[in-house]
Amino acid sequence: MAEEVDVVPKTFRGLVESADRKFARVRDFPSYGRAQGQHYLQKVFKAYMTLWKYQQDNRTELIKAGLKRWEIGEIAGRIGQLYFGQYTRTSEARFLVEAYVFYEAILKRRYFEGCKVKDLGVRFKELRFYARFLLVLLILNRTEMVKVVVEKLRALVDDCNANFRETNFKEWKLAVQEIVRFMNADTNFTIPSARPFRYCAMFDCHPNSVPYVARFHAKKVLKFRDAILMSYHRNEVKFAELTLDSYRMMQCLEWEPSGSSYQKHPAEPKENGVAVDYSGTSGLIDMNLVADMTDPTLPPNPKKAILYRPSVTHFVAVLATICEELRPESIILVYLSASGKPTHINASPVETSGRSKQTTKNKLVSHNSLEQNFSAPQSHINGKEGSGDYYDDYLWLGSKGNGGSSNLYPGDIVPFTRRPLFLIVDSDSSHAFKVLHGAERGEKAALLLSPLKPVFKDPSHADITQNGSQFTFFLTAPLQAFCQTVGFSLSDCTTEVLNTAENILSTAFSKWEVILCKSPSLDLVWAQVLSDPFLRRLIIRFIFCRAVLYAFCPPEESDQYLPVCLPQLPTSLSPKADAVQSSVSQLATHLKVADCFHLDDT
């Protein structure tokens, strides 16, 4: 009889050990390239779903046999980890939501809190659970839940310090500081009424330009399915291995659910000889989720490999893998945000601007000389100089003293221009990558290059370690970046003022989309990606960024404060074009910051 009683706990322990062994093998699978070990991932999912179902069906006997609540929480946490891992490999929102489901269940059912044990190992499991849940919540923009979990994490760290004095919890104190710093920099927390970073059909699909975009046909059309996002700055804002700049760009390359309901229903997998996809929805925790978490009507998100502080060789290996596997008629987006070492710039890293219209004459003299920047590239841009140009300036991916092994040169990118490439470089040596234009090995690359220096009315905003990059901010949240540049506080303005400002921008963007679609001089490099909503939005926001900084930056050496695109966009959308300058003027006037700009009377 005793042996029969022992069957359930023995079976359970066997399932736990088997699932844990499988989990250990897939935990460090890379998040890029073809589904590596996908077959084995299916086995791990199956093992944990079987384990979860078994403990549900035999909960009473297992508790009698000594099963602790934290053990149930650990199983749910592992399943959440598996789903989050699938999200990082595929960028499919359903996996992120599944991770949220299991983590929220752990929180609400207090699997860890309820035990009140003095076991240090269990406390570390709880700490790791909160950190993983916070990462999921940040990506889902669950700002209120983030605040709740942060307080729980802070309280747990304090409790651990009090009860385990012989153990050092410094890294967990730093984790709390990191998430608080991230919240202070992320406008999702500071401006609750701000529009989402993700592509939202309600806000980003402009009715007036939709017919023109729909009718637009280029000689060649490329599909955007893959991206590499990399940010590497000393002491930059981050949480875990997600930096603020990468987070903003990641959000910018995903769809915002439009409000379809997401309900979960219990479902048991069938295995009558049919392969079951255990990496799909679990159906094992029945919860009513918030209605806007997923939207099955949306296209899939582009897959994104997010690299945290990679070595140069690791970055090149990832780029090579994705380029090798890139489907025909597709384009890869590469986003690089890192410090550089320009060899020809000797100036302060930031300029401030607090000018009035009285200095307009001086500015116009300077900006007349800038016309060359918008009409024709420099000689080396056309690839006429020697290959040494490819290895002069660089991005710096490493700590001090590592030498050339930590330098990412423009020449390192050249071999990958055999495939269509949409390159965004945000760095104080970004212009070094101009040499790629005309030096491609097969496909002309689309280049969006940041200014060499940021410029703000308030110099405190220039600190990338506190606020992230200005250029990336313009590409991902243009109105917020505009306000940060001129020192206008969106958090203090009324909803009506904010909505009107957003409407001014939407009208401008719609108008510029029409101009792009109708322009006979639009280069094929831009034309072939114009039908993609994500890339089109980045191009439009680049035009806005360039126009704002053109009207705002200081008169001397102002080419250092302007972004560059190659090939050139049509002159009808240059910073001096009426269609562009009038929109900047309208927005500045509405927010009562027109005195920060020099603008022609239009």
Give the strand tally.
12
Mean pLDDT rating: 84
Physical arrangement of strands within the biggest beta sheet: 4-1-5-9-10-12
Would you identify the regions where 5 or more consecutive residues have pLDDT less than 50?
Answer: 259-284, 286-292, 342-349, 354-386
General form:
globular
* SS-derived structural category: alpha/beta
Number of helices: 23
Helical residues, percent = 40-55%
Rg result: 26 Å
Tell me the strand percentage band: 5-15%
Whole-Å distance between the termini?
93 Å
Mind describing the biggest β-sheet? 6 strands, mixed
Explain the overall architecture.
By secondary structure, the chain is of the alpha/beta class. 47% of the residues lie in helices and 8% in strands. The chain has helices at residues 2-26, 38-57, 59-64, 69-90, 93-108, 120-140, 143-163, 170-185, 187-190, 201-204, 210-215, 244-252, 312-325, 360-368, 371-375, 410-413, 464-467, 470-476, 478-486, 495-518, 524-527, 533-552, 578-590; strands at residues 223-232, 238-239, 242-243, 303-308, 330-338, 351-352, 395-396, 407-408, 421-426, 446-449, 455-456, 564-566. The strands form 4 sheets. The protein has a 6-stranded mixed β-sheet with strand order 4-1-5-9-10-12, with helices on both faces. The protein is globular. It comes from Hibiscus sabdariffa (roselle). It holds the Pfam family SCAI.
